[in-house]
Amino acid sequence: MGASLSELEQPPQSQPQQTHQHSQLQPHQHRQNEPTNKEELRLPSRRENLLLSPQYHTKSPSSKKAVQNSTVVKCDETQSATKPLIKELSLSHNYEHILKDADSPVDKSSREKMCDQLYAGVFLHHKTKKYWVEKNSKANCFMLYARALSITWAEDPNYWKWIQQKDVSEGTTEVAELKRVCWLEVHGKFDTRKLSPGILYQVSFIIMLKDPAQGWELPVNVRLVLPGGKKQQHKENLMEKLRARWIEVPVGEFVVSEKDGGEMEISMFEYEGGMWKQGLVIKGIAIKPKIFT
């Protein structure tokens, strides 16, 4: 695929492969100065040492050829600067299949442009999801926006309202704002086979609490059910969270396995306390590599 690190670190004096192949086609050029008899195999005289010195050959035709060869190596290095991008793309697991659901065509005219788009993110399924590649780990990341989730009573304007949210990095997406409800239930589903194998992922709800945020005296339940039925569940006290800004509420974490891939379910719910709640804004669910701080 791309040029190896050892190839890129060769000094400029080294001959590139193309020049070496040319010399193989004209072997007589390397044999003109070879000794023809044993008498020529003697120590060079002082004058010959002068002739063989680097200073003498500074302006010789052979030195010009060396300069030309050095230029060729630099050109190869410049051209190979884009070759590592092939490796970067190859590490993005299943990206070609994922991009089939892209809202708009991805520019594949160059590997550099394609990588830039994957790092910035691509909207899927009519802006209900977003896919991007984390630059350092080359791992697939996803955002499931509120429209991709199942929210109880979300289509009833008495309980929830949908708002167009503008973001510099994400453009315009829809968020769900809770007006007033006592039965909170949010579910999302995702196929883990789209994630990068061997990566430790963290799943989180992205939410905001707007004043007056009321009815959150009881903690909410968050749950992650992995393919195969393994469950992670705990409670989160939203009363302790910051207000008027997007925050992450962690649900669970797991290492992706190719053989155990399948659909996982992410949930947030609280309906046993019977308290009327308001002031919650749901942006979606983030699935991305866990960052250790």
Q: What do you see in this structure?
A:
The structure is a single chain. The strands form two sheets. Strands 1, 2, 3, 5, 6, 8, 11 and 13 form an eight-stranded antiparallel beta sheet that branches. The chain has a five-stranded antiparallel beta sheet with strand order 4-7-12-9-10, with no helix packed on it. β9 (220-225) and β10 form a beta hairpin. It is an alpha+beta fold and 293 residues long. Mean pLDDT is 78; it is low at 1-44 and 46-89. It has a domain at 146-289: Sandwich (Jelly Rolls). It has helices at 5-8, 17-25, 46-52, 61-79, 84-90, 95-98, 111-120, and strands at 122-124, 129-134, 139-145, 150-151, 160-167, 171-178, 184-191, 200-214, 220-225, 231-236, 247-255, 263-270, 278-289. Helix content is 20%, strand content 33%.
Structural class: alpha+beta
* CATH T-level topology of one domain: Jelly Rolls
Second-tier CATH architecture of one domain: Sandwich
The largest sheet, given as strand count, sense and whether it forms a barrel, is: 8 strands, antiparallel
User: Which shape, going by the Cα principal axes?
Assistant: globular
Query: From the alpha-carbon coordinates, what is the Rg to the nearest angstrom?
Result: 31 Å
How would you summarize what this structure contains?
This protein is of the alpha+beta class. It has a domain at 146-289: Jelly Rolls, CATH 2.60.120.
